[in-house]
Amino acid sequence: MSALGSELVDSTTPFERRYGGWYVTGLNGAIRHRGNVVLKDNRAPTDAELARGNNVKSLSAFFDTRPYLSETSDLVALLVFEHQVTVQNVLTKANQHCLSLMAYQQGVQRDLKERVTDEPTFESVDNAFADAVQQVLDALLSKDEAALPEGGVKGIGGFAEAFGRQARGAADGRTLKDLDLQRRVFKYRCSYLVQSPSFDRLQPALRKRVLRRLWRVLSDPSSDRRYAYLEPEERQAIRRIVGSTVSNLPPNWKLDR
Question: In angstroms, rounded to a whole number, what is the distance separating the alpha carbons of residues 217 and 62?
Fold first, then answer.
């Protein structure tokens, strides 16, 4: 529907501009998304059409759900999916860029008969790594995440209950998969993908630099006002969870007791 324009939807997209072309079940209050709306004309949906498509508990009103495994398309699952795809895309892009940069640097070092290093030593490469670290941290720490509707959201379909069953957490039981669903998606705004094989396999210098800066952000809020939105208790919880569940942490990482 060209009248509605187009955009790449990710975790920063305002809630009311999400889910066009998707089926969605869940309770989201007065702020309306674009899900469950079928248009036959190139125009914006009316308020009545949006209202019918929101706060839906079953998709059976829209089509015959009997051939499918479920009659729901859980809103919480869609929110988590958007988060995971957003972070995974950033990790993949940063990793490929830094692998390419290190291959370039090491090739030049060999050609010049210099010592081949595993760390960025060329100024241009070092600056590019710094940019990649910031992009990864922005994604991991949910910077500019769009707010949820006032009053929060509730999924219909059981995803929220199943999502955290095998989560890895700290000794006190807190995990990076703990959901908030009131103001934001996650209670602790550090992506659980920091525990994933994708993060473990990042270019080694990039991974180390991300974790070093993550420690500084979490332990000294004044060191980086870019992430001032993280709450003190939240920072402490993230430190403990990451310190307990992520392997091969750099030496500056200290586990809170």
Answer: 47
Q: Is the dihedral of CA 71, 77, 79, 83 positive or negative?
A: negative
Distances (CA, A) of 80 to 10, 11, 36, 93, 179: 11, 9, 19, 20, 10
- pLDDT for 208-244, tens place per residue? 999 999 999 999 888 889 999 999 999 999 999 999 9
Complete DSSP assignment for the chain: -GGG------TTS-GGG--TT---BEE-TTS--STT---SSSSPPPHHHHHHHSSBS-GGGTS--TTSS-S--BHHHHHHHHHHHHHHHHHHHHHHHHHHHHHHHHHHHHHTTPPP-SS--SHHHHHHHHHHHHHHHHHHTTTTPPPPPTT--EESSSHHHHHTTT--B-TTS-BTT-B--SSSSBSS-S-GGGGSHHHHTS-HHHHHHHHHHHHHHHH-GGG-GGGTTS-HHHHHHHHHHHHHH-SS--TT-----
State how far the Cα of 253 lies from the Cα of 257, in Å rounded to an integer: 13
Spatial distance between the Cα atoms of 17 and 93, rounded to a whole number of angstroms? 25
pLDDT (mean) for 128-137? 97
pTM for the predicted model, two decimal places: 0.92
Contacts of 157 (CB under 8 A, 6+ apart): 25, 26, 70, 72, 73, 74, 76, 77
Rounded to a whole number of angstroms, the distance between the first and last alpha carbons of the chain is 55
The dihedral region occupied by 5, where left means phi > 0, alpha psi between -120 and 50, and beta the remainder, is left
